[in-house]
Each structure stands twice: as structure tokens, then as C-alpha cells.
Specification:
Layout (H helix, E strand, L loop, with lengths): L7 E13 L10 E16 L5 E3 L4 E3 L8 H13 L7 E7 L9 H16 L6 H16 L5 H6 L5 E3 L6 E2 L7 E6 L6 H14 L1 H23 L3 H18 L4 H12 L4 E5 L6 E6 L2 H13 L4 E8 L2 E2 L6
Parallel strand pairs: 3-5
Antiparallel strand pairs: 1-2, 2-5, 2-6, 3-4, 6-7, 8-10, 8-11, 9-10, 11-12
The protein binds (3R)-3-hydroxy-3-methyl-5-(phosphonooxy)pentanoic acid (PMV).
(3R)-3-hydroxy-3-methyl-5-(phosphonooxy)pentanoic acid (PMV) binds next to α4 and α5.
């Protein structure tokens, strides 16, 4: 089949937040994640010669990409192989507002945009299953043993209930809720954090299994809180989840300090989000105005950046200060 190129194509995606359940999700427990509207876009154009790539991290040929971007190179190649197209004559540009390595799912979001833009460039329909299998190539390089949560949340417009290897489900939220996100400015290391949890699991199986079981209950009850619009309960559950993340060894003093700042500013709950060992925290505000107060307090305490927004019934977001 001969495929005609569009000469230029765009693919888009967004970042994600894990409300509850990170790390436990790697062990088959449920997690709840939601889209976070920091956007990323890939633009593909025709350009003779080896494939060129341009992003804030790297500019050059894909075959010379630094090691930490190998997953992206492989994802581009796999996608072109799938499309039966030569691995050349393209220029791919990434424009992203998602800070890298902060637990906001930037690697999954970038891979999603790349796959979407290449399919659009060659005017091919892209099913969710194919998207996920191609993005998994890159995510496996980035994480080692990804649960798949990042890529599903980064390609969804709604909060989702996720279990590894199972069909994810949209959660219908009853009441708007108000989220503050604060970036420590420190790059987390999901791969290292996941490996550390595994080591602890092997050394202290019963302790870690208890934590994982508690996180499972927290995720169940958080779903109940969202479906019933009980934000006070959701906040309490986020705090309980943070205690278990501390026990898993993926929080640190700086994250704990910032979480306390948010709680002292009246947040209903707060926890790290994503892999941990750096990255971001999330806090639950009482309303949008109060979320701004919490976000400001976090900036005063030294975070690199904070955002706050409200969900609006099922559709997200009424306001994002970016
Ligand atoms: O740090 P992030 O945004 O890539 O999130 C990782 C989430 C984990 O549960 C720690 C790992 C995974 O594969 O789900």
C-alpha cells in the first residue's frame, strides 16, 4: 500500500497526576490518576536524510540521542516499522510545558505525541491498543517495569481507575475538587524508586505487603470519595497514602516538609505524586481560592513552581494558573 504523506503533522498529549496508588500499582494494586493540563506537542515534517529530533533536552539525529532518550529513539523506530515506512526523511520537534522527571508523566506524554504525530503524518488510523503497545517500548526504557498507568492517564481526558493489565475505567466525579501541584525542582528517579521498593519488598516482604494492601484499600475508598463528592475523605486518604509511601522509602525530607507546609496552610490532604525521591507533591484545597493560598505558601517555602486548578464536574479544568 502506498501512503501519501501530509508533509506536516501534529500529535498532542498532556501530563498526568497520580491521586493515589503509585508504586503499589506496579504490584497489581489499583491506582487513581487524572489528566493535568500541561500540554506537549510533537510536529513531524519531511526532511531529507537521517531522522532529526529537536526538544529542550536534545537536538540532533536520533541515532546520536543520549542514553536516557534511547526509549524515544526505539519508539520512533518501532512506530515507523509498524507503519512500514523508512526510518529516515523526517524532522520531529517536541514542544512541552511538562517539567521532565517530576512525576508528571512527561516521558509517556512525549511518546504519545510522537506516535500520534507519525500516524497522522502517514494518514493512518491509530487504535488505543496500538498506541499503548508502541508507547510501552519507550516506557520500558524509561521505567524498567512500567505499570502502564502513565500512558493511560496521559491519553485520557478524565480521572481513571487503573489496574495493571486490566481495562482502565473512567471515574465519574460527583463534586469538583481543587488540586495544588508543587514542583520541588528536583528531578525524581522513577526507575531507582521502583527498584528500591522491589529491594525492600524482597528484604521485608510482610512489612511491604502490608503497605501495599493498605494502599489498595486507600484507592478503593478514594474512588468511593470521588464518586460521592466527599473531598474531606479524599484528603484524609491522600494523607494515609503518603504515610505508606514513606514506609515504601520513596519520600524524602524535602517532600515531607513541603507536604507539611500544605497541611499547615489548611490543605485537606497532601502527598507526593509519581515515582518520588524528588519531583512533585499534590495537595487538596478547600476551593479554588484556598488552593491559590496553599500554592503561594509552597512557593514561599521554596518550590520551583506551583499550579492550582479545579475540576469541573466530569470535565477538567476551570482554571490553571499557567
Ligand atoms: O514518576 P512517574 O510519573 O513516571 O510515575 C511512576 C508511577 C509508578 O507507580 C511509581 C511506576 C509505574 O510504572 O506505575
Amino acid at each position: 500500500m502506498s501512503l501519501k504523506s501530509n508533509k506536516k503533522a501534529i500529535g498532542e498529549s498532556h501530563s498526568k497526576l497520580i491521586l493515589v496508588g503509585e508504586h503499589a500499582v506496579v504490584y497489581g494494586k489499583p491506582a487513581i490518576a487524572m489528566p493535568f493540563p500541561l500540554k506537549v506537542r510533537a510536529t513531524v515534517k519531511e526532511s531529507k536524510g537521517p531522522i532529526k529530533f529537536k526538544s529542550s533536552l536534545y537536538r540532533g539525529y536520533i541515532y546520536e540521542m543520549p542514553n536516557e532518550m534511547r526509549g524515544i529513539e526505539e519508539c520512533i523506530k518501532e512506530t515507523l516499522n509498524y507503519l512500514n515506512k523508512p526510518i529516515r526523511d523526517l524532522h520531529i520537534t517536541i514542544d512541552s510545558l511538562i517539567p521532565i522527571g517530576r512525576g508528571l508523566g512527561s516521558s509517556a506524554a512525549i511518546s504519545i505525541t510522537i506516535v500520534r504525530s507519525l500516524f497522522s503524518f502517514y494518514r493512518q488510523k491509530l487504535s488505543k491498543d496500538i498506541l499503548f503497545s508502541l508507547v510501552t517500548v519507550a516506557e520500558t526504557y524509561a521505567h524498567g517495569n512500567p505499570s502502564g498507568l502513565d500512558m493511560i492517564a496521559s491519553s485520557s481526558e478524565y480521572p481513571i481507575w487503573f489496574k495493571k493489565g486490566k481495562e482502565s475505567m473512567t471515574i465519574k466525579i460527583r463534586e469538583p475538587f481543587h488540586i495544588v501541584v508543587a514542583d520541588t525542582g528536583r528531578t525524581g528517579n522513577t526507575r531507582r524508586a521502583v527498584t528500591n521498593v522491589k529491594k525492600r519488598y524482597d528484604l521485608e516482604k510482610s512489612n511491604i505487603q502490608k503497605s501495599l494492601a493498605k494502599i489498595e484499600r486507600i484507592a478503593d475508598e478514594s474512588k468511593y470519595a470521588l464518586v460521592n463528592g466527599d473531598n474531606n475523605l479524599l484528603g484524609k486518604l491522600m494523607n494515609l497514602n503518603q504515610q505508606e509511601l514513606i514506609n515504601l522509602g520513596v519520600s524524602d525530607d524535602n517532600l515531607n516538609k513541603l507536604i507539611n507546609v500544605a497541611i499547615n496552610a489548611g490543605a485537606l490532604g497532601a502527598k507526593l505524586t509519581g515515582g518520588g525521591l524528588g519531583g512533585c507533591i499534590i495537595a487538596l484545597g478547600r476551593d479554588l481560592e484556598h488552593s491559590k493560598v496553599v500554592a503561594d505558601e509552597l512557593v514561599k517555602s521554596g518550590v520551583e513552581k506551583s499550579w492550582y486548578f479545579s475540576t469541573e464536574n466530569e470535565r477538567l479544568y476551570v482554571s490553571l494558573n499557567d
